[in-house]
Design brief:
Largest sheet: 6 strands, antiparallel, barrel
CATH class of one domain: Mainly Beta
CATH topology of one domain: Thrombin, subunit H
Number of helices: 3
Shape: rod-shaped
Strand content: 15-25%
Distance between the termini: 166 Å
Radius of gyration: 50 Å
CATH architecture of one domain: Beta Barrel
Length: about 300
């Protein structure tokens, strides 16, 4: 009975033994088999082929994770660099503004120095501290008064031309009537004094901000853009200072004078610093006092 069972078990297990022997033979043959082109063992090639999907998935996941952290680090570095660039840009903008302000201040100081060197009179530098609120082109107040040597009827100028004259003073401040005021006036000449016969006088036109020049003969040739200067005949302003530039001419004739309009050289809407000239006009002869083209002023007595 035992012998029958043993034979039966052998017959049942025989296919498995045969399969095992065949697999072992196949493994031995595969291990020894090689590719013709690379001479690599076939078993190694098959192992690499089977392992590829797992290795590829693992490598992709690892690469993605590493790439994420690298990008995160790069973003942090970019944010820090961006902040540094913003700070540097703000610093440079501040430096540019400071440099521009310094250049403007240097230009202003050079102009003031040039004006002082140009004039043969004493000068009192002053700043504009107030304007007449009712008439923009009427009067201004400066921060120099009698304590600084300012007196009534002293002319006031800036680096561009005449501004006006002092009409009242206190110990520490003074009021200046601008040449654009309708009550202002000055002797004027189109062109260079001593080289031109186009002599007349100017008066202000109030809030229009312009000057009107009269008494220039209609036979004289005047044109847009010609400059006008002081003659010194008005007893307030010394000769040779800029008044303005011609912007319009109503032509006269042999019997009628030109009517000329000027834009003041000293920008009345941008006055910040001015100079009071310590100028006292010389005594005038009777013939000078009788000149018809010189407007009457407190200085002409």
């Amino acid at each position: 009975m035992a012998t029958i069972r043993t034979q039966k078990e052998i017959r049942q297990r025989a296919p498995w033994w045969l399969a095992g022997l065949l697999f072992a033979n196949f493994a031995l043959m595969s291990y020894d088999a090689r590719q013709d082109s690379t001479k690599q063992r076939m078993i190694r090639v098959w192992a690499q082929t089977l392992a590829y999907p797992v290795q590829n998935a693992t490598s992709g996941a690892g690469g993605a994770s590493l790439g994420f952290f690298e990008r995160l680090s790069a973003l942090r570095g970019a944010a820090s660099e961006n902040q540094q660039l913003k700070s540097r840009l703000a610093q440079m903008e501040t430096e540019v503004r400071d440099s521009h302000a310094t250049a403007i201040e240097n230009e202003r100081l050079r102009s003031m120095l040039a004006l002082r060197e140009k004039t043969s009179y004493g000068t009192i530098a002053a700043s504009v501290i107030a304007r007449d609120p009712s008439l923009w082109f009427d009067t201004i107040t400066i921060d120099r008064g009698r304590s600084a040597g300012v007196q009534n009827n002293m002319p006031v100028v800036n680096m561009n031309g005449i501004v006006g004259r002092v009409v009242s003073t206190s110990l520490w401040s003074s009021q200046v009537m601008l040449i654009t005021n309708e009550k202002s006036g000055a002797g004027a000449v189109v062109g260079q004094l001593g080289q031109s016969s186009k002599v007349g006088s100017i008066r202000g036109l109030g809030e229009r901000g312009l000057l009107e020049m009269r008494y220039v003969s209609g036979l004289e040739k005047v044109a847009f853009g010609d400059y006008v200067m002081t003659t010194g005949q008005d007893g307030v302003f010394p000769a040779g200072y800029n008044i303005g530039e011609i912007v319009e001419v109503k032509s006269g004739s042999a019997t009628q004078a030109h009517i000329i309009y000027l834009q003041p050289s000293a920008r009345m809407d941008q006055l910040n610093e001015v100079f009071v000239l310590q100028y006292h006009p010389p005594e005038r002869s009777a013939s000078d006092q009788a000149l018809p083209n010189v407007p009457k002023s407190p200085g002409n007595k």
